[in-house]
Amino acid sequence: MKIEGRYEFSAPRDQVWAMLVNPESLRHCLPGCKRFEEIAPDQYAVTLEIGVAAVKGTYQGKAQLAEKEAPLHYKLIVEGTGGPGAVRGEGILTLQEQGTATVVAVEGDAQVSGLIASVGQRMIGGVARMMMGQFFECLKGQLPPTS
User: Fold this and answer.
1) CA 74 from chain center: how many Å?
2) Is there a domain that residue 146 lies in?
């Protein structure tokens, strides 16, 4: 399943990059995040409580920031398993300056298996987009007010 999105921040690219690689910002803004603990540089043990329609569950897994080129882009690799199934995904986050703003473009792919896959790819795609939107809106809320 392909996942794409574009999110605009009213902040310089360096400031947005700093938030996107800050473990505390990631932990705070990741929907359903119950644990986000560094296990190696740029690798984190993650516990998420998420649900798709009637299929809800807790997922244990890992998140890794790879191929980092500050402040331009990095690859986010996530994988997790739980009662409802398994999730694996990779996405590239690219930061583009647009005047005084920064646009974060996300392009990735995710695979799901198990019971959670049975609810249908269209619904899972919608939930993934909704969770990405919540994540980036939360990050926007962490920016200091502009004058």
Assistant:
1) 12
2) no
Cβ contact 65:78 at 8 Å: no
Q: Which stretches of the chain score pLDDT less than 50?
A: none
- The per-residue pLDDT for 39 is 97
Range of the structural domain that residue 113 is part of: 2-141
Number of domains in the chain: 1
Residue 40 belongs to a domain with what CATH number?
Answer: 3.30.530.20
Long-range contacts of 122-129 (CB under 8 A, 24+ apart): 123/52, 123/53, 124/1, 124/52, 125/1, 125/3, 127/50, 127/52, 128/1, 128/3, 129/3, 129/5
Does residue 147 sit within a domain? no
Is 73 a domain residue?
yes
Question: Is residue 27 a part of any domain in this protein?
Answer: yes
The model carries a pTM of: 0.90
CB 102 within 8 A of CB 13: yes
User: Residues 99-142: pLDDT tens digits?
Assistant: 999 999 999 998 888 877 776 666 777 878 888 999 999 999 99
